[in-house]
Amino acid sequence: RAFVADVTGQPVGEGGVVDELLDRLVAWGALVEVTDAPPVAPPLRAPGRPRVLLALSGAVQSCAAPSMVQALQARGLEVRVAATRAALRFVAVQALEAITHAPVVRSMWSRDPEHPVPHLELASWADVVLVYPASASTLSRIARGDFSDVVAAAALATRAPVILAPSMNEAMASPRLSSNSIT
């Protein structure tokens, strides 16, 4: 709560959306207390396991997406990926599809008549949306309510919690997001 309050400049009271998100992440085993012992991944869950939409935007950290997918899967989460064209300059679609066993959604529209609006399907499918990495452009789109790319559209259309993980050169970050102000 303190971190969110520092970043947003707004007080974060107990019992709000932040506590709800933290409770879900703890329940899913995605957030654990750090100990000296090496972490033990929980066993994979049944088909009804929590679903995470990993939404990649055009930042160099997209190259770490396969590792992120594997880490989430090791925690028992089902993962699907949506990616902007810019994100796919840093990571191969084939790698992501091989790990997730599902197509990477790259466009707002599909040629498949059974799945005509993939960003809306993903938005309703997800239990949580993780925008990682969240480039300055994507953060701007989400903040303005701009549905012009698949990642922003899925993040804006979902009713699930949305986690934004900013990734940009420090010179591009707002003063609120600079490393000097985040503790």
Give your account of this protein's structure:
This protein is an alpha/beta fold and about 180 residues long. The chain has helices spanning about 1-10, 15-25, 65-75, 95-100, 120-125, 135-145, 150-155; strands at about 50-55, 80-85, 130-135, 160-165. Strands 2-1-3-4 form a four-stranded parallel sheet, sandwiched between helices. The longest helix is centred in the first third of the chain and has 11 residues, at about 15-25. The protein starts with a helix and ends in a 17-residue tail after the last strand.
Which features does this protein show?
single chain; alpha/beta; 183 residues
Pattern of helices and strands: HHEHEHHEHHE
Structure class: alpha/beta
What kind of sheet is the major sheet? 4 strands, parallel
Broad shape: globular
Task: Report the count of strand segments.
Answer: 4
The chain-level mean pLDDT equals 82
Cα gyration radius (Å): 17 Å
Straight-line distance between termini: 12 Å
Strand content: 5-15%
Which regions contain 5 or more consecutive residues with pLDDT less than 50? 40-46
Instruction: Count the DSSP helices.
Output: 7
List the helices and strands and how they pair.
Blueprint: H1 2-8, H2 17-27, E1 51-56, H3 65-74, E2 78-83, H4 93-100, H5 118-125, E3 128-134, H6 136-144, H7 150-157, E4 162-166
Parallel strand pairs: 1-2, 1-3, 3-4
